[in-house]
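WARN  no MSA supplied for this record, continuing single-sequence
INFO  ligand: magnesium ion
INFO  echoing inputs
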Amino acid sequence: MTRITLIEACNISVRRGSVTVLESVSFALHKGEIVTIVGPNGSGKSTMVRALIGALPVSTGKIIRSPGLRIGYVPQRLHIERTLPMSVRRFFNLPRRIDDTALADVISKVHIEHLLDRQMIDLSGGQFQRVLLARALLGNPQVLVLDEATQGLDQSGSAEFYQQVEAVRNELGCAVLMVSHELHVVMSASDRVICLNGHICCEGAPDVVSSQPEYQALFGTDTKGALALYRHEHDHSHDHDHDHDHGSVHVHGHTRSVLPPTQERDS
Ligand SMILES: Nc1ncnc2c1ncn2[C@@H]1O[C@H](COP(=O)(O)OP(=O)(O)O)[C@@H](O)[C@H]1O
Ligand SMILES: [Mg+2]
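INFO  complex generated
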């Protein structure tokens, strides 16, 4: 099967001020696949997706996006001014009015027809995320990027949201790049998982990865493994061969930690 590459990062590093946030990251996103980036707070997940979509410059290396690539992006944070009344319908029509057919199409895809005349600030967490998802789908994206889109949702809310994302992927055939630390939830919905900590520590297909000793050392063997993610030392064995084959696990080595182990979430 020939895989169509939509975005490719070739040995990129990203510096913010004097800090090297990402170093020697190579990555390719292919048509139709769901890739999840996991990693501790401050490990550069948001930086990586923002660099990939062109919202942040890289310091070295290069990023190749296929020409005219349509990207739908759900950022990690979206602040809605509580004093400003804004209906869901109005939210969709900002910054410019969209046509009714396009609106009807996306709201039916994520089943939020009943929410159109609600106020944005009155939505539950799950409803709010669905609205953001629908909005990101407006331009009929080839790549959907979700940065911790289920933050604040409970486990079943998250699972439901990811099922929705998977359904959208199946329908649109778009690639999905998501950031999450809910490992146990995203594993089932992902074709490939990338573990990031300033660089790519390991990656592979979830079922293959999760049965590997390398993975279990990183994340543990059960759902509590999601917590182990925050504790693991990333000082595992090295294998520099990374040809992004879906059928095997890749452990990317490193000799030092680019970032201190605990960093504030987002800035
Ligand atoms: N605008 C910025 N200026 C300087 N440092 C930044 C900036 N944005 C993020 N960083 C730093 O980059 C690192 C990675 O941040 P981020 O990509 O948001 O991590 P994650 O999404 O994995 O939590 C953090 O140490 C953060 O403090
Ligand atoms: Mg982030």
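The chain has nine helices and ten strands.
INFO  checksum written, moving to next record
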